[in-house]
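Moderator note: this is an archived Q&A kept for reference. The question asked for a predicted structure of one protein chain; the sequence and the answer are reproduced below.
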Amino acid sequence: MNKAIALVTGGASGLGLATAKKFCDHDITTIIIGRNESKLAKAQEELGPNCHYYAFDLNDLPNIPDLINTITTEHGKIDILVNNAGINMKKPFIEVTDEEFQQIITTNVFAVFSLSREIAKTMASQKHGAIVNISSMASQYGIPKVIAYTASKSAIEGMTKAMAVELSPLGIRVNCVAPGFIATEMSAKALNGDPERKQKVLSRTPMGALGTPANIADAVYYLASESASYITGTILPVDGGNAIGF
């Protein structure tokens, strides 16, 4: 049986790296995509022979079809897509410029749309595939100073449902993982310098701790696997109960 092939965007660090590690550890050929070639090479070294990488800036929308064509030519197919790459910006709402808002929407929404569209064409010809989008509990909450990120992740959740309805009849399942507060470099910067905010986060998380990147990777792996073969269009919070914490 041919090995499954997964593509993980933003796979050189954080949640993407944890997801790529989970796939590689389960003998899935895993292709990571990112902008920084040295970070990609370091991740590939860490992940071993099941990992391959392509350095590519996903904001370069016109060249995404060529990228996917190259990958499918070299690897034969793509079974799993994890749309993990994303950027954030912390800034008061009234100070965010049109250009800053647009940049986050381009990376977090347009790139996900373009990449998913091109890979869905390949998956449709195979009559199978799994797409897992990464959202955020920011889409469910009103969190100050992240207006563009919140808008982008709300869009991802809506797109997940719309994609699932159109693509599931073609054999392509589409789901979404919505991480809560996860201990990554990005969140450490935000929370460690703001003890009050960190205490607020932990006090309303019933499990009483931040999540780990591995917690997210486990959820993504499940939704991408045959164990989830009758699940599509779902948004799975992985948040230690934060959404229902009081």
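Archived answer notes: The first strand starts at residue 5 and ends at 9.
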